[in-house]
Amino acid sequence: MSMDYATEKVRENGNGVELPSTQRLIPFENKEHSPESYEDMQLDYSPLLFSSLERYLPPNMLNLPRDRKVHFLSDILTRYSPQGEHTRVQKHRTYRQKILSNYEPRHKELYTMNAANFFVPSFLKAISENSEESFRSIMAEPTAGVYTFEMFQPKFCEMLMAEVESMERWVHDQRFHIICPNTMNKYGVVLDDFGLETMLNKLMEGYICPLSRVFFPEVGGLTLDSHHGFVVEYGVNRDIELGFHVDDSEVTLNVCLGEQFYGGDLFFRGVRCDKHVNTETQSEEVFDYAHIPGQAVLHRGCHRHGARATVSGHRVNLVIWCRSTVFRELKKHQNDFSSWCGDCQREKKERQRLSVAATKLELLKRNGISAS
Ligand SMILES: O=C(O)CCC(=O)C(=O)O
Ligand SMILES: [Fe+2]
């Protein structure tokens, strides 16, 4: 089975460049500082990016006026972006503005987080208790690192599907050319592009982060700071299946919204780091999951998976790829991921086994020598 990296179109070809030492962010997040909101400002990059980066400002800059901080951070971001990337960011901004100023939402209530109306009570209770015990009380972990639980109210799922239908009708009527959810799914919409970014960010911060902090701390679950939120659709005249891949995320939330369908099972095949992404699957890593409307699946982005053919009916899933800038940066400086990669773990065990064997042999030899 060959492996694909599912990516979001606009993130392809990102490169980094070295910054002059005079203009640097500090290497560790200042957790005591509460960042300001930049949502009301006209910016070249996501306002959320400015809020996340604020915690990395040199201490003497933290209390400067917002426009000074924006200036400093934009300068850094522009240096990081090769011209192509910068143009892409600008184009994407214009693209979103075009949608936002023309598309009339069908269910405005979806665009603001309303926990009591969105989530089922058991989920809300577990989140408010905020402990591993409370999370486990509403979850199953059918295979290591895959958590399933009831999350959304049926009304929310119906409204979101109706909203997506209305977005698609608008796209069709306007003959608007939309960006696909990612490089693999051709049917569906990027919810962030249609004005749901703020709501989905609240969903990530308030309702995914508490879980990822407990279940996925070693892959950036402690520091999720951005997301890519989209809906994918399968069935007749849509995508049929989804090939074997890893997500462009640290943690993925995948919720089946509906409707009626046969097939479409998710298949999981073990967690891997970039180096081992194409290695063989071990029998204990094989796990298949049948989607149930309203049920969420939470897994690491690097847990290799795909979706089997939806053989009849229509399947609609909400997918949120959650990312951590800090984790991605740290990953560049490491090469042993044995705390989560199945093959790094196997390699480490093998190294330990060889080392124990070598030590035993050495001891035997020494004993042999001293015995003679
Ligand atoms: O169709 C599904 O449920 C899987 C979707 C998925 O894996 C993805 O979009 O990354
Ligand atoms: Fe995926």
Automatic annotation (TrEMBL):
Its cofactor is L-ascorbate. GO terms for molecular function: dioxygenase activity; iron ion binding; L-ascorbic acid binding; oxidoreductase activity, acting on paired donors, with incorporation or reduction of molecular oxygen. Residues 225-324 form the Fe2OG dioxygenase domain. Pfam families: OGFOD2-like (PF25238). InterPro entries: Oxoglu/Fe-dep_dioxygenase_dom, Pro_4_hyd_alph. Keywords: Dioxygenase, Iron, Metal-binding, Oxidoreductase. It comes from the Eukaryota. PANTHER family: 2-OXOGLUTARATE AND IRON-DEPENDENT OXYGENASE DOMAIN-CONTAINING PROTEIN 2, FE2OG DIOXYGENASE DOMAIN-CONTAINING PROTEIN. This is 2-OXOGLUTARATE (2OG) AND FE(II)-DEPENDENT OXYGENASE SUPERFAMILY PROTEIN-RELATED. It comes from Salix purpurea (Purple osier willow). The lineage of its organism: Eukaryota, Viridiplantae, Streptophyta, Embryophyta, Tracheophyta.
